[in-house]
User: Which sequence fits this backbone?
């Protein structure tokens, strides 16, 4: 099972709800700089953000859970965090952070909480994530959270905001 929520000194990761769509759209969903390396194109309207949230809500909760990353002080949505379990012993993650919050260590803080949770889960032996090989900021987030770079996956995924061809990605993991 995924956690109901996670807290850090500055953040609350809580399950996404439909009411978050407006903040997601305004904060990062429509920002081409934020979505540059992601697997989805920027939202063109609030309806796109609402459709995204609706999809998150119907994903099987034992296989995937999407959280919003909120400030503990104000409850405002700063980003998103997704956990996926493709095998019983392995959890994979992905994240996004609004540009206004870049460079403050927030995503490293959030990922540290996820690492602590995953490594304490009795059946979880591996937590992993990946990023575009050119996304130095995301690679640094994973390194700061104690994940080891395991390698380069050649032509791994299409980043539609950059190219229609698959791009190289770096994979990071923490194991116990």
Assistant:
């Amino acid at each position: 099972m995924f956690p109901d929520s996670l807290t850090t000194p500055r953040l609350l990761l809580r399950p996404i709800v439909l009411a978050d769509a407006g903040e997601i759209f305004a904060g990062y969903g429509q920002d081409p700089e934020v979505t540059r390396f992601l697997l989805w194109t920027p939202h063109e309207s609030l309806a796109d953000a609402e459709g995204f949230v609706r999809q998150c809500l119907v994903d099987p909760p034992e296989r995937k859970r999407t959280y919003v990353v909120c400030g503990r002080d104000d409850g405002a949505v700063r980003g998103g965090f997704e956990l996926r379990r493709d095998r019983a012993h392995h959890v994979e993650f992905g994240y996004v952070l609004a540009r206004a919050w870049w460079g403050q260590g927030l995503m490293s803080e959030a990922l540290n909480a996820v690492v602590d949770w995953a490594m304490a889960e009795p059946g979880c032996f591996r937590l992993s994530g990946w990023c575009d090989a050119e996304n130095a900021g995301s690679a640094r987030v994973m390194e700061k959270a104690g994940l080891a770079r395991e390698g380069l996956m050649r032509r791994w995924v299409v980043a539609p905001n950059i190219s229609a061809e698959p791009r190289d990605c770096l994979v990071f993991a923490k194991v116990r």
Notes: The helical segments are 21-29, 46-58, 106-120, 136-144. Residues 6-175 form a domain with the Aminopeptidase fold (CATH 3.40.630.30). The longest strand covers residues 77-87.
